[in-house]
Amino acid sequence: MSQKNLSTVATDVIAAYGITATNVINSYRFGGERVAGFVDQRFAAAVNRGASALRKDLRSNLIDSQQRVTGYYVKGIHLGTDKAENAVGVAVDLATKGVSLLTENAERIDRAINLNALATLGRAAVPAAELMNKVAERIEEGSSELVRRVSGKDMPAKALATIKLKAATSEATANRKRVTKAATRKVSAIVEEAANETSNAARRAARKIQTTGEQAINAAAETANETSNAARRAASKIRSAGDQVVSAVADTATETSNVARRVASKAKATGKAA
User: Fold this and answer.
1) pTM of the model
2) pLDDT by residue (tens digit) across 209-230?
3) Is 187 exposed, middle or buried (0-12, 13-18, 19+ CB in 10 A)?
4) What is the longest distance spanned by two Cα atoms in the chain?
5) Residue 99: CB partners within 8 Å, gap ≥ 6?
6) Residues 110 and 116 sit within 8 Å (Cβ to Cβ)
């Protein structure tokens, strides 16, 4: 048999146990209602047997008080059994969903590794699963018979349990989907907020980098201007010093030429005198 058939058998077993649990809850519910009705009848019979000693209005008040007490008891039974049925519905919904997810993941892995292990596993496991399903069905039939005996009525116990289980499971499925959607929205909001924070941080970092770059460029330009101005001042000083040196050399040459002419003139005069 295929893995699909195996998952179907597993789902049937889960449903059978869900119906059995619902039958047990119905047994408690119908049994409690029956006990409450029996107590009311016995109490009314006891009060009416003492009719000669009790006034009619007193008998009526006593019976009404007893019926109110049993009414509260029955309401408590209904409240408890409703909660129990909801819990069974949640369990069946989660178990069925788990089987479905397990089957889908197993088939995906089997296709990925291409071993066809699921077919072999199905052939080995389905007979045991079908045997378990038969046991679950027998337990379910026994619980349905228990419901009929406890209620004292010939009622379609399995059909009633199936309807209740289906309603509880549908409600549990709807609640699970609402919770999942709410959780998904919350996670999406958190992710979006984190993404916005990251984007804002990136923009702030980019602005800081841009500002730092502009400051560095301005500082470099200012340094270059200072260097250029210093170079111009140095060049001006060098030119001024060069001019002074040239002038000094020229003055020295002129002075030397003048001295030479004076010496030559004296020498000439001395020669003539000799």
Assistant:
1) 0.58
2) 888 877 877 877 788 788 778 7
3) exposed
4) 197
5) 7, 10, 11, 14
6) yes
